[in-house]
Amino acid sequence: MAVQRQYPYNQFNFQVKFGSTQASFQEVSGLGMEIHVSEYRTGDRTDNSPIKVLGLTKHSDVTFKRGVIGDPTTLYGWFSSMSGGAGNASNAGMTVTINLMDDTNSGTAVQTWVLANARPIKLTGPTFNGKATDVAIEELVLTTEGITQN
Questions:
Q1: What are the domain boundaries of the chain?
Q2: How do residues 111-121 score in pLDDT, each as one tens digit?
Q3: How far, in Å, are 6, 18, 94, 148, 150 from residue 21 at the CA level?
Q4: pTM of this structure
Q5: Higher-confidence residue: 52 or 107?
């Protein structure tokens, strides 16, 4: 449910749910869709321009980044269960929900994105550097069959 107001919401206040499991992330990127356009021109067309025909809709892969929190079962467990191949009965996708929350800390979601039948396709562990003081970041990339916005 989108809530309209005069100024935009801050991007830092969001929640992510994998099914019914709450997860914490520093960054979510790649929420996007694209419609393929084909150009077609018949031979008897009087003007010299093609018509544009809308084709398939493509949903971008969504990337989740988080600091290492010491619980590998959430990301690594899901990735391992999916890596059994197409014959693996457990490789059914999951519904992932991303909620943009209200600035007032009321716990109200003002915008929601739902990833239908999401599956992990890439999991990257953190980079370690003895000279740096940055947070160790894990990265998870999901492919999805649909993105809806509420």
A1: 14-27+65-149
A2: 999 999 999 88
A3: 33, 5, 11, 19, 20
A4: 0.79
A5: 52
